[in-house]
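Example: DUF2878 domain-containing protein.
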Amino acid sequence: MKYLAVGLGFNLFWLLAVWGQYQYVTILISLLIGCWLFYHRCLPFALIASAIGIGGDYVLFQLGVMQSPLPTNPLFAPFSAFIPLWLILLWLGFTSMVWIMRAQLQRLPVWSVIVGGSLGGALSYWTGLTLGAVTWPYGEQITFIGIAAIWSLYSGYLLWLLQQMTKRGSV
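Written out as structure tokens, the predicted fold is:
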């Protein structure tokens, strides 16, 4: 039941971030703080794991693979040079959810996490495209395949990081 609630909670978080973008930044930040207070050990994992994802998205934005509408609120304008703030918060929420679900994820065969992560990640970005949160100037098919490939690597990295941080007892 816990994992169902976590999954549904993350889907709501995702929707607020992607569909709402800058409208719900305060709610997203509040949810993250609440999560980190309740699951205080997931913060170090979320920060480390998100750094790779945020960096990867930064590269995709700089290469023009993805673009996002500019924020209308001047408070969020500085993020236009990097990646949208809502996307940074989404990464932090996603990696926090991975930490909370770590026991379940580590029980699965590695190949299923990599394939599931690859398709799930690419579908998440494609859904963001359909909601108007991002655009894909190079076209849907090639961008989807590229993002799926990136997410297969990222999924493997997340499993490795979970294993390393669990071994060391650092979180």
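The helical segments are 2-18, 25-38, 42-62, 85-100, 102-107, 110-130, 140-168.
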